[in-house]
Design a protein that fits this description.
There is one protein chain. The relative contact order is 0.17. The chain is α+β, with helices and mostly antiparallel strands. The chain has two domains: about 70 residues, no CATH class; about 100 residues, Mannose-Binding Protein A, Chain A (Roll), CATH 3.10.100. Helix content is about 35%, strand content about 20%. Pfam families: DUF4256 (PF14066). InterPro entries: DUF4256 (IPR025352). This is DUF4256 domain-containing protein.
Length: about 190
């Protein structure tokens, strides 16, 4: 995963302009993901939240192709989610969390999905959010994505992940310390 060269988690004016243009273009090309949402309102919110733009830049830089897939009226927040066809290429080959990373004695991955997500300022998708994403298209047809795992499963050493095969979404389990070249994670950023 590429590290941002800004230590203060803000973008330069040029980076901001380029990112907003990319996000607007993706938003306009994929209206089925966000019916009845207005890009101008979303952009105004983003303009007021430079730290959210920084997180979106991190999602973009790791090949997540973030786009809006929903709006929560109660919290007045737009949901940006990684909409790359496959699990983001710049966020693969990580185990689930820091505890799993620490437990590996040999062949440790570079990091964990939860660590990287926290550094980026995003959250892993829950199982429900993953199903919501899959309703907007077909994702993870060849890869899989770690999902935020319920504490009851994690306490027993496991973690969950999802993919789409045979025209339907599957949620599976694995040891949290496992990692694969075809498994990454998708993020959620609420703006």
């Amino acid at each position: 995963m590429k590290k941002n060269h800004h230590s203060d988690k803000t973008l330069s004016a040029i980076e901001k302009q380029q990112l907003l243009a990319t996000l607007k273009s993706r938003f306009e090309k994929n209206p089925g993901r966000h019916k009845e949402l207005d890009w101008n309102k979303i952009e105004k919110k983003l303009e007021k939240k430079p730290e959210k733009l920084w997180s979106l830049q991190q999602m973009e830089a790791s090949e997540g192709e973030p786009d809006v897939i929903g709006y929560d009226k109660q919290t007045d927040s737009y949901w940006f989610v990684d909409c790359s066809p496959e699990s983001p290429a710049g966020r693969r080959s990580y185990c689930y969390d820091p505890e799993a990373l620490e437990s590996r004695k040999a062949n440790k991955p570079a990091d964990s999905a939860l660590n990287i997500a926290a550094e980026m300022g995003i959250e892993l998708l829950t199982e429900e959010e993953y199903h919501l994403l899959q309703q907007t298209g077909s994702y993870d047809l060849k890869t899989s994505s770690w999902l935020l795992t319920p504490a009851t499963i994690r306490k027993l050493g496991g973690a969950i992940f999802g993919d789409k095969r045979f025209g339907r979404v599957f949620i599976y389990h694995n040891g949290a310390e496992s990692y694969y070249a075809a498994r990454g994670f998708r993020g959620l950023l609420k703006v």
